[in-house]
Every structure is written in structure tokens, then in C-alpha cells.
Amino acid sequence: MKIQKRRTALQGLTLIEVSVVLAITGVLAVIALTALARAFARSPTVTCLNNLKYLSLAARMWSNGHSERFPWMLSTNEGGTREFQPSAEVFRHFDVLSNDLINWKMLCCPADEQRVRKGSIVSDVPLANTNISYFVGLDADERFPQRFLSGDRNLTGGTTNGPLLIYSTNSTPGWGKNIHQFQGDIALSDGSVQQFTSAGFSNSMQAAFATMTNAEMRPVIPRVPGE
Asked: Model-level pTM greater than 0.85?
């Protein structure tokens, strides 16, 4: 009498069936990875870093046409904004970059719920501090890549003097809870952008101090009434 062996489920799959299963698995993996990539691209942190990258590029393009100096280093007679350094109208430092920016949206971090994103540069409504999430580093200089060009406005520590926030070597710089939950994004004078914790921010600031004679860092914050 012949004994017939039962075929297991695995033995019952033909080569074609296995190929189909692998192909379906591959398609599902691609779909999942694509969805993750899109979600990552839409994240506030990535958008914020991209904003600062474009912003630093615009500032450096402007400086290339103005003796390698940023707007806040030149007088208004030369097309700059130096006279507005002590002014609360911080938006003016960004306004002069309009020819090199794609739109005003990149001046507003999507995680900054206290600011309003402004769209087209060509608009009847002028730019204002309410549209800006980022500070201007008045000590930024292309010759010193470690210095801060711009970054998130939720800075803490230092001494407040109107719109200025003055840091010295004895300051304890950090980030507030709002915007990026005790973290922040920075654009350096060389055009690079990074996200820092408070400790990383402090270390980076010490590196910048090493390039200064007065050892003061002066970010100017786009404040609005009530802040």
C-alpha cells in the first residue's frame, strides 16, 4: 500500500505565488515609506530648517551685492537697515530681502502659533513682526561662520534691551517651551542650519564668542505687543 504524504501550506506555494507575495509586500513597503517621507517633510521642524536655509541664502545673496555685508550692517542710504538696529520694527531687516526671497511664508515657522503666515511678497498688506518667527543676529558676519545669522525667536536668558537680547560669556542661553519644546533652529553665517538643545545652543554661542572682541551676542527679536 502506497503512503501519500500531505503537502504543507509552504510546499503548496508555487514559484509564481511566492513571487506575487513578494511583489505585493514590496509595493506595500514603498507605499508606507512614501507616506512616512511625506509626513516627515510636512513636520514643523523640517519646514523651519528649510525656512532658515532659504532665509540665510537670501541674506548672503544680498550681501554679495553689498560688499559682503548684511543689511543691518549698512546705512539706509546704502540700501541697508542699520538705523533700525535699536528699533522694534525688526521686520525691516527682512523686508529688504524681498528680491531674494520666494515668499513671506518662509519667515514664519509652522510651529509658531503666535505668528501669522503671510503669503505673496506682492501684497497690499505690508510685512510686520506678526509675520516673523525668526530673530536677526546683528553680529553675523560672513568672515566668521560660527556667528548666528538668524533663528527661532523663543530665546531665553541674556539681558533684554527693547527688541535686543544681549548675551555675554556669563549668560545662560536657552529656549522657551513654545515653538519647538525647549529646542530651536539656528542659521549660521556660513549658511548652514542646525537644531540645538539649550546645551548645544550654549556651546555654539561660546564658539561664536571666540571670534569677537567684545564677547557679546545681540539677536534682535521680532516682538509684538504683549510679549
From this structure: no
